[in-house]
Amino acid sequence: YRGDPVRISGFVMPTPQAAPVLARLTVRCCLADATPVGIPVIWPEGESLKADEWLAVSGEMGVERVGGVLRSVVIAERVQPIPKPKRPFEP
Questions:
Q1: Which of 41, 55, 70, 75 is a plausible cystine mate for 62, CB 3.0–4.6 Å?
Q2: Whole-angstrom Cα distance, residue 35 to residue 61?
Q3: In terms of pTM, does the model score above 0.70?
Q4: Interatomic CA distance for residues 37 and 47, integer angstroms
Q5: Which fold has domain 5-81?
């Protein structure tokens, strides 16, 4: 809900017409069908993001218009690089 605290980790996934999202890979059957699933993030001003970089993000949940649609977003207050997990398909 809006204003609730959030801590999440994932990799930076660029998007064509908006800010990069924080994503994870979802596996339904086998690794061959792994699909990225991301959540929009309102990044801190001046944050330097690299595609596929793993980050731990903390902040609060918010609601913003993304691509003309109201969406849940993470309003990032702290962004910290982390190593890629040994098992990146698990939450």
A1: 75
A2: 24
A3: yes
A4: 22
A5: OB fold (Dihydrolipoamide Acetyltransferase, E2P) (2.40.50)
